[in-house]
Amino acid sequence: MRDIFQTFFNFVGIFFVIYMIGYASFLFLSVVVGSSTLYGLKRRNMLKNELPSDYYIPVSVIVPAHNEAVTIEATVRSLLALQYKVYEIIVVDDGSTDTTADVVREHFHMRHVNRPIQRSLHCQPEEAVYESRSFKVPITLICKRNGGKADSLNMGINASRYPYFLCLDADSVLQSDSLEKIVRPVLEDDRVVAVGGAVRPGNGAELENGRLINYHMPRGLLACMQVLEYDRSFLAARILFDKFNGSIIISGAFGLFKKSVVVAAGGYDVTTMGEDMELVVRLHAFCRENGIPYRIRYATDAICWTQAPEKLRDLCRQRRRWHIGLFQSMTRHRAILANPRYGLVSVISYTYFLLYELFSPYIEVFGVLTMVLASALDFLNVPFMLLYMGIYVAESSILSLTAFFARIHTIDLRLTAGDVLKAVGICAVEVSCLRFILAWVRMTALIGYRKNRARWGTIERREIQVR
């Protein structure tokens, strides 16, 4: 029996060494590529270039909202401060039970109109439509029956006037140049059907007229750890995937899409919790199956500031929804796996998300439980295991800090010495402790998920610091 256990633990040990080396190698490559790309852009002054006023595409900005009375005014005001020639703002109130619609109507001087909305995509019916012409761009408020975020986005697409639409969460704000920067890839290449922007936690950021005037690390340690996590993800992995048209996620908080292609592909799927990822994966499939030349890009200098959860309970709810959305997207489009038709999207993107995102919580939790069992049965080489884990945590921490400081430096942010020490001090905690907590949350996410798949989910909001 002891020989059987010894063989089992040896096999598991080899598997985990290979698995962790694979993840560490990918993280290293993505951080190196991401950092070098950012510094290359900075050297060429592309991060400060503005789009010539004679070149633009009209954009409809869609803001789905459900019980966002605390943040919706600041979000819309940030949109009014955008430096862009032609765009419209559409707020879709998805059956809110708070004063979301009242806040928008009162602060932006809206009046009720009888405006028909063509149903290119299925969605719950509108109950009232309001418009405002008191500002430099038209603002539309659509109050509709509750149907979920994807349903609200479909309504916004139906009501939009322009050939491209931008999705923005109601708890997020854009910098004044973000719209022109996320549009730039479309102007450079007419094959582009979607562009993702860089999403950063806005806890600690203060904006005035769409410009960042003050930034510091969030006071809460949980929000600080998410700052490091976001920069590692949005700086590193997404820039790397962008190099070979392999992006299969565009954050629902900030993404630009070509309306005609999205409508032809069927719009947002109202039966999934991860409508943002599912749409992007479906666009890959739709374009390749129909022989449509396309690109899905990532605009690393187009910045959206969003609210990161400051309570562990809220963060767990958010990550649970994300993992369910990942599961739904990958299972519905499983034909992409090992399919030569999809090229590097299949070989690299889908395989990475399958092994290191969808399966990772199960693998990691199983690994920890195996170490506990091996230690109890005296099969574990404790000094070697501690050394191995220490090396992994140290490497991951260094790469996280590299991504974080590269982002800070290349967008000319200034941190105090206290903020720097805070970032350095918590990086190892984020990589080890928080990662394991979220692994457990993600591992249990699929239990009973079908009952709540149409719900928005509730996260405590704070007023956004916008002047």
Automatic annotation (TrEMBL):
Pfam families linked: Glyco_trans_2_3 (PF13632), Glycos_transf_2 (PF00535)
UniProt xrefs under CDD domains: CESA_like
Keywords: Glycosyltransferase, Membrane, Transferase, Transmembrane, Transmembrane helix
Keyword Heme applies: no
Keyword Membrane: yes
Boundaries of every Glycosyltransferase 2-like domain copy: 60-114, 164-379
TM spans (from-to): 12-41, 362-380, 387-408
Classification via InterPro entries: Glyco_trans_2-like, Nucleotide-diphossugar_trans
Molecular functions per Gene Ontology: glycosyltransferase activity
Signal peptide start and end residues: none
Record family assignment: Belongs to the glycosyltransferase 2 family.
Protein name, entry field: Glycosyltransferase family 2 protein
